[in-house]
């Protein structure tokens, strides 16, 4: 409790959590000021006001030539583009990736329909425990671990490695979630092949290492926020896994850090955003980079919707360790990260609020 003001933060957090209404419920109730535990410190908010004036968007890569053709020269060009984007940006937008726009639109519509339901209907899916597996709806995965809450709600479904019981998904978006998992995984497989080739590995190496198998789908909703200058949609962080595939509607808000600048990511119709996670940076021995990104609180009356699938490995090495791939190491290019255990990886993610490259910093070999 704040002794000076009589403000009991934990009590307010619990009341919000136990109401199961999420920020969408708060927004729909017509509030004009946000609860205090959503307010971020001035230094965070000052940084959120900075965005790039020189960069207009992340790289856009057209995959049509490899989806529709076996032309080797075309493929080499795309491999080079993907490699360059993963090295210098950690992000790119894929267009002409083989998934029909109708499927993208249906997925966005279905996730929006879930979040638009009355909170009493969504409440039966509301959970706080973060077990691996199953389906949960929640507001702020790290509500009790983060210093300040963020203005978003999420529907989360573990799609693999154990097949999800389809009946566990909310009926309103069930078919679309299953279909999107299949489509996004196909895109992720294509991208992982290109990333492998960019490292000089066999195209199927990441698939063989089970990097497509552990998948969690998260449907985020960033509803209208009455005081967007006081809070954030999602705080600045890097993703912990191998790669992430993100589908978003036309409401902006995503920003990516490039050098010292924050770049506004403009949604491209039919585009999918791909980004590298910390795990990919480690196993590529720093060749590919995971990059900070964040989402602004939404000042638009229309909700921002994003559907993210995080891809991760399901099978660790027999000794329980992981680190830079041995094929990428040589006397000229020694490992810059030490090996780490499954336990370290999981504890690092679930032991605190979302953050930036904390595992990478822990396992970096100091020269």
UniProtKB/TrEMBL annotation:
It comes from Castanea mollissima. Its cofactor is Fe cation. InterPro entries: DIOX_N, IPNS-like_FE2OG_OXY, IPNS-like_sf, Oxoglu/Fe-dep_dioxygenase_dom. Pfam families: 2OG-FeII_Oxy, DIOX_N. Belongs to the iron/ascorbate-dependent oxidoreductase family. SUPFAM superfamilies: Clavaminate synthase-like. Keywords: Iron, Metal-binding, Oxidoreductase. Residues 210-313 form the Fe2OG dioxygenase domain. This is Fe2OG dioxygenase domain-containing protein. GO terms for molecular function: dioxygenase activity; metal ion binding.
């Amino acid at each position: 409790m704040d002794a000076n003001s009589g403000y009991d933060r934990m009590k307010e957090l619990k009341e919000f959590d136990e109401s199961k209404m999420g920020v969408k419920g708060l927004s729909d109730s017509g509030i004009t000021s946000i609860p205090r535990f959503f307010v971020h410190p001035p230094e965070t908010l000052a940084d959120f006001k900075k965005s790039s004036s020189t960069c207009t968007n992340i790289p856009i890569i057209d995959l049509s030539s490899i989806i529709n053709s076996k032309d080797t020269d075309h493929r080499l060009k795309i491999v080079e583009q993907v490699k360059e984007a993963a090295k210098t940006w950690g992000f790119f937008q894929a267009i002409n990736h083989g998934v029909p726009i109708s499927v993208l639109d249906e997925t966005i519509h279905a996730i929006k329909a879930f979040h638009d339901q009355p909170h009493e209907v969504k409440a039966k899916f509301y959970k706080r425990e973060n077990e691996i597996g199953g389906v949960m709806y929640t507001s702020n995965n790290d509500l009790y671990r983060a210093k300040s809450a963020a203005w978003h709600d999420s529907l989360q479904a573990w799609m693999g490695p154990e097949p999800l019981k389809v009946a566990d998904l909310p009926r309103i978006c069930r078919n679309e979630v299953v279909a999107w998992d299949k489509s996004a995984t196909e895109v992720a497989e294509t991208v992982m092949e290109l990333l492998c080739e960019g490292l000089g590995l066999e195209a199927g190496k990441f698939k063989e290492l089970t990097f497509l198998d552990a998948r969690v789908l998260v449907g985020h909703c960033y509803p209208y926020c009455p005081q967007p200058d006081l809070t954030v949609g999602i705080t600045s962080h890097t993703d912990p896994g191998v790669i992430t595939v993100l589908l978003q509607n036309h409401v902006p808000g995503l920003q990516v850090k490039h050098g010292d600048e924050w770049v506004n990511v403009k949604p491209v119709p039919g585009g999918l955003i791909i980004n590298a996670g910390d795990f990919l940076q480690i196993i590529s021995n720093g060749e590919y980079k995971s990059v900070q990104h964040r989402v602004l609180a939404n000042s638009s009356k229309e909700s921002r919707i994003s559907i993210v699938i995080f891809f991760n490995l399901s099978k660790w090495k027999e000794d329980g360790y992981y680190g830079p791939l041995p094929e990428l190491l040589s006397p000229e290019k020694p490992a810059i990260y030490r090996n780490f255990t499954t336990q370290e990886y999981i504890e690092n993610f679930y032991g605190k609020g979302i953050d930036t490259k904390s595992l990478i910093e822990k396992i970096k070999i100091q020269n």
